[in-house]
């Protein structure tokens, strides 16, 4: 086991409460499947990084954090390092599991290929954390971690694919502080709305009543829409913290 030499980070009360609640689930549920919801800006990455730290210290087993984008892998690895958690990114150009690491950050497809090629064995993986869990690309890997507790983390606990609901993969739900409370307590800024008239006649609805991805992409990537976006930014956001 690798020792954490960094001073322990101080957490906000709601973060500490959620960390304790999730850890109680880990200790009481064998190979559980838990979904954790917290609004954007609430500190999900910091919270699951602390859970990873505590897990490796208490159980001396491997932790894997799954992401669906390279940028998220880098950001997550950086947060872990700042909290004193030695970790290794498994990417298309990096190596496999190493003897001097307890925590790994991995892209879904890369890890799936490494497991399929038997270059990575998952026997000692005790905890899998799925970032942005509403993306369904992660489900193809879950059968590879039969001995692990799985935590899905998201701000929006609704599957990106309506035919594959979250309840098929997760058995418990922990709901963190809501947006209005985070605003009231000063952790999030109160939003301000700026309205611009947009012609939506080109949008088409799918079988579930939502606008189709193709028609949305076509509209919002059009030159007119991009010009309006730049105008809105220059009028309301230029030079401001974001």
Structural account:
The longest helix is centred in the N-terminal third of the chain and has 16 residues, at 13-28. It is built from 7 helices and 7 strands; from the N terminus they run αβαβαββαβββααα. The protein starts with 12 loop residues before the first helix and ends in a 6-residue tail after the last helix. It is α/β, with parallel strands linked by helices and 242 residues long. It is globular. The mean pLDDT is 88. The chain has a 7-stranded parallel β-sheet with strand order 3-4-2-5-6-1-7.
Proportion of beta-strand residues: 15-25%
Overall average residue pLDDT: 88
Quaternary structure type: single chain
Name the overall outline: globular
Level of helix content? 25-40%
Q: Output the number of helix runs.
A: 7
N to C succession of SSEs: HEHEHEEHEEEHHH
End-to-end CA span:
39 Å
């Amino acid at each position: 086991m690798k020792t954490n030499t960094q001073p322990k980070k101080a957490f906000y009360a709601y973060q500490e409460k959620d960390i304790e609640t999730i850890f109680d689930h880990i200790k009481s549920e064998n190979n559980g499947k838990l979904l954790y919801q917290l609004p954007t800006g609430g500190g999900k990455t910091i919270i699951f990084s602390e859970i990873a730290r505590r897990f490796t210290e208490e159980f001396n087993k491997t932790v894997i954090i799954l992401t669906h984008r390279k940028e998220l892998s880098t950001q997550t690895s950086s947060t872990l390092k700042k909290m004193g958690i030695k970790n290794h990114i498994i990417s298309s150009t990096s190596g496999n599991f190493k003897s001097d690491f307890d925590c790994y950050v991995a892209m879904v497809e890369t890890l799936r290929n490494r497991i399929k090629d038997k270059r990575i064995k998952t026997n000692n993986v005790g905890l899998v954390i799925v970032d942005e869990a509403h993306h369904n690309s992660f489900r193809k890997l879950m059968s590879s971690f039969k001995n692990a507790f799985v935590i899905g983390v998201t701000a929006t606990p609704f599957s990106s694919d309506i035919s594959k609901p979250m309840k098929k993969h997760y058995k418990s739900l922990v709901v963190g502080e809501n947006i209005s409370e985070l605003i009231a307590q000063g952790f999030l800024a109160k939003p301000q709305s700026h309205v611009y008239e947009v012609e939506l006649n080109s949008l088409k609805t799918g079988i579930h009543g939502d606008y189709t991805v193709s028609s949305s992409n076509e509209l919002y990537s059009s030159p007119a829409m991009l010009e309006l976006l730049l105008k809105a930014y220059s009028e309301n956001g230029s030079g401001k913290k974001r």
